[in-house]
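Board notes (copied after class):
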Amino acid sequence: DPEETTPEAAPLKAVPEPEAMAPPAPPPREDQAELNIQDVKARACDALHKALGLEDEQPVDLDDVKARAAGALEKALGVSESAATSKEETAEAEPAPAQPTLVSEVQEITRQVKEELGKFQGEVCGQLQDLKQLSSEVRKDVEDLRHQVAEAKREVSGSSTFGATTVTTIKPEDPLQDLAGGSLADLEKKIRERNERFRRENAAMREENARLKMMGPKAD
């Protein structure tokens, strides 16, 4: 008979034991936290010294550190000192926007000034026109007076030359009515006096004309 064989039993695997859980870390003590902060400060100080190119024994100037830090920041941002200064000057040079109320007030004042100048120009033109007319009338009167004086001189000269008495007929409204008689010197004196009276009358007429212009339409 064939020999009976029994199957060999499989080797038993070792079951790993469950890992023991690590106990929770105790909370940091105050002295340990202070040590950590001091360590961070020391490392930051070392890094700052290396970045600024300072040695451990070299004293640190706070203003110098600030200036170097500002320069590094400007380089990092791509902004130079001249560009920043130009921007500030440009901002200062820009005029402040004008306020609407100020602009309206200036426009109103300009309008009033133009209106007053227009009125004054009209008044001056009117007075100049009146003066031109008065001057023309005075010039005409003076020319007539000169003509009549020349005629009187010729008549006086003729009468003295030929020894004849010349009678000059003078109309009542003639300007030479008050010049008749007397010598040639007296005649010239009377002419000068009459011209002076004409000047005074013309000046009085100008003053009266100016007064009427000042009174305006109510002068009537």
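Comment from the instructor: Residues 31-77 form one domain. Residues 163-170, 175-180 have pLDDT under 50 and may be disordered.
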